[in-house]
């Protein structure tokens, strides 16, 4: 099981936005931080905006910022914004009561519960603490 690179970039972008003290951060800064093209990152930012996780402010001093309370945003929120909310496993043999599908769906539910319980703000605080002690570049 593997999430797309876009999810990876979205998670890093969200953590970066959570750590900002300025009101907004421009797409250029966010793209440079992750060595991405601004065009590619803009597509990711659009999905995060549509999901209501960030908001965009247009103009010369515009950019992006977190739009919800920071302690409400989970890993699963970001994953769903980028990947959608589809099942990872779909039984190729369609029959009622598939035992294999039952196991896979339960495992997926357990993973979703874990990701929903992990908040981005906790990682952001940990990253900030490491940065302050010089253990994170």
UniProtKB/TrEMBL annotation:
Q: Which organism is it from?
A: Alkalicoccus daliensis
Read off the SUPFAM superfamilies from this record.
Winged helix' DNA-binding domain
Which Gene3D superfamilies does this entry report, sorted A to Z? Winged helix-like DNA-binding domain superfamily/Winged helix DNA-binding domain
Q: What's the protein name?
A: Transcriptional regulator, BadM/Rrf2 family
Which PANTHER family would you find in this protein's record? RRF2 FAMILY PROTEIN, WINGED HELIX-TURN-HELIX TRANSCRIPTIONAL REGULATOR, RRF2 FAMILY
Gene Ontology MF, one: DNA-binding transcription factor activity
One GO term of the cellular component aspect?
cytosol
């Amino acid at each position: 099981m593997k999430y797309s690179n876009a999810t990876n970039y979205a998670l890093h972008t969200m953590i970066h936005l959570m750590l900002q003290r300025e009101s907004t951060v421009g797409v250029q800064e966010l793209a440079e931080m992750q060595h991405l093209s601004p065009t590619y990152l803009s597509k990711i930012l659009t999905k995060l905006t549509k999901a209501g996780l960030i908001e965009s402010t247009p103009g010369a001093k515009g950019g992006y910022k977190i739009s919800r309370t920071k302690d409400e945003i989970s890993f699963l929120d970001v994953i769903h914004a980028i990947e959608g909310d589809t099942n990872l496993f779909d039984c190729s043999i369609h029959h009622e009561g598939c035992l294999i599908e039952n196991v896979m769906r339960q495992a997926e539910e357990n993973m979703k519960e874990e990701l929903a319980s992990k908040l981005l703000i906790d990682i952001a605080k940990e990253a900030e603490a490491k940065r302050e002690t010089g253990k994170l570049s």
